[in-house]
Design a protein that fits this description.
InterPro entries: Auxin_biosynth/cation_transpt, FAD/NAD-bd_sf, Flavin_mOase-like
GO molecular function, one term: N,N-dimethylaniline monooxygenase activity
Number of strands: 11
Order of helices and strands: HEHEEEEHHHEHEEEEEHH
Radius of gyration: 25 Å
Keywords: FAD, Flavoprotein, Membrane, Monooxygenase, Oxidoreductase, Transmembrane, Transmembrane helix
Strand order of the largest sheet: 7-2-1-11
Distance between the termini: 48 Å
CATH superfamily of the largest domain: FAD/NAD(P)-binding domain
Number of domains: 2
Strand content: 5-15%
Number of helices: 8
CATH topology of the largest domain: FAD/NAD(P)-binding domain
CATH architecture of the largest domain: 3-Layer(bba) Sandwich
Shape: globular
Structural class: alpha/beta
CATH class of the largest domain: Alpha Beta
Cofactor: FAD
Pfam families: FMO-like (PF00743)
């Protein structure tokens, strides 16, 4: 199938090939995070590579997803004292159960069991391996982990060792932030925490509406207006992959549908034109019951 690819960089996937990092990257450019009329100094780093520069410091990590957990753990490994902000309920599941990947186990169960039952199994296994997390200030949502991922795109957090550091007191879980002072963070419960640095691990937002104009394919939230599984095709030959907020399975489903649609279009466009012949009349019969 003939195609034309437009790429302004000199390679494919330039973000990964040219701007990957030693360990962890927070995909939040610093110019989007600075306060009005208070730009960051030029010497400030715009991403997190290692906890080594924070040795002996009190660091506030804003965000408790997979990035926030891993950053907090890495800070501990380099002698820092992280305070991890946990504002909402979240699912934390073990990375492995009996030596088997938890994600792999979940995908295996989903192929044979209903989603609600797999959720119950995963929550039970998480409780069995990780224990009661309410005592640590981490609360589970009412909706199961796979259902939450399936409906809202919120992935569960895989524990890679951070929970053990929370239990030992090396990582302190704190509630949301109300405001900052010169060197302190005022929390939503009124507690004042002195911090030497703040690291943002707050995720990202789709910026499609900023550059895709003259079409109503995407909404203001940066995602297709038509919900999954029909949000992969727009007007004017425009397709979208991976915006279903359902992880790799959603991206895979989009890619398969787009491939089939392109194949069908190619067959129609490459089909030889039929010669004009005798008119063919079609008759339609309808029955009203």
């Amino acid at each position: 199938m003939p195609f034309l690819m437009l790429e302004r960089e000199d390679c494919i996937a330039s973000l990964w090939q040219k701007r990957t990092y030693d360990r962890v990257k927070l995909h939040i450019p610093k110019h989007f995070c600075e306060l009005p009329r208070m730009p960051f100094p030029e010497s400030y780093p715009d991403h997190y590579k290692s906890g080594e520069p924070y040795n002996g410091k009190r660091v506030l990590v804003v965000g408790c997803g997979n990035s926030g957990m891993e950053v907090s753990l890495d800070l501990c490994d380099h002698g820092a004292h992280p305070f991890m902000v946990v504002r909402d309920a979240m699912h934390v599941i073990p990375r492995e159960v009996l030596g088997k990947s938890t994600f792999e186990l979940a995908m295996l169960l989903v192929a044979w069991l209903p989603l609600w039952l797999v959720d119950k199994i995963m929550i039970f296994l998480a409780w069995l391996v990780l224990g009661d997390l309410d005592k640590l200030g981490i609360h589970r949502p009412a909706v199961g982990p796979l259902t939450l991922k399936h409906t809202q795109g919120r992935a569960p957090v895989l524990d890679t060792g951070a929970l053990a550091r929370i239990r030992s007191g090396q990582i302190t879980v704190v509630p949301g932030i109300t405001r900052f002072t010169n060197s302190d963070a005022v929390l939503s419960d009124g507690t004042i925490v002195h911090v030497d640095a703040v690291i943002l691990a707050t995720g990202y937002r789709s910026n499609v509406p900023q550059w895709l104009r003259a079409t109503d394919f995407f909404g203001k939230d940066g995602y297709p207006k038509t919900e999954f599984p029909n949000g992969w095709k727009g007007q004017f030959g425009l397709y979208s992959v991976g915006f279903a907020r359902r992880g790799l399975s959603g991206a895979s489903a989009d890619a398969v549908r787009i491939s089939k649609d392109l194949c069908q279009l190619w067959k129609e466009e490459s089909r030889p034109a039929k010669k004009a012949g005798r008119p063919c009349y079609r008759r339609s019969i309808s029955v009203v019951l």
